Amino acid sequence: MAIIPPLGAVGASPAVAFEPAVRPLTSPGSADEKDGVDFGTAVVNALENLQASHATTDRLAEAAATGDLRAVEDYMVMATETQLATQLTVAVRNRAVESFNEIMRMQV
């Protein structure tokens, strides 16, 4: 039977720092919560960015229609970006509603 030497004998430090891959849950209002953005704020920021994107697209469309826009491709790029952002937002919303309905159907 082979004898396994202690960690100190092979040159390794016996005190190995362990960093958990997943951070533990913290209570609301703790110091860790202040480091990041909470989910509600992230959703509100995303919706505000989408609204600003729509406003910019509308402004570029108006400029293109009146002939004030020199580079029409700017409007095309902005319209496509806004369309993709809207489709993503609708997909996330649909998935959230679907998940909510699934949770409500669970039997307790």
Automatic annotation (TrEMBL):
The gene is fliE. One of its GO terms (biological process) is bacterial-type flagellum-dependent cell motility. InterPro entries: FliE. The keyword Transit peptide does not apply. This is Flagellar hook-basal body complex protein FliE. It comes from Actinomarinicola tropica. PANTHER family: FLAGELLAR HOOK-BASAL BODY COMPLEX PROTEIN FLIE (PTHR34653:SF1), PTHR34653. GO terms for cellular component: bacterial-type flagellum basal body. It comes from the Bacteria. Its main location: other.
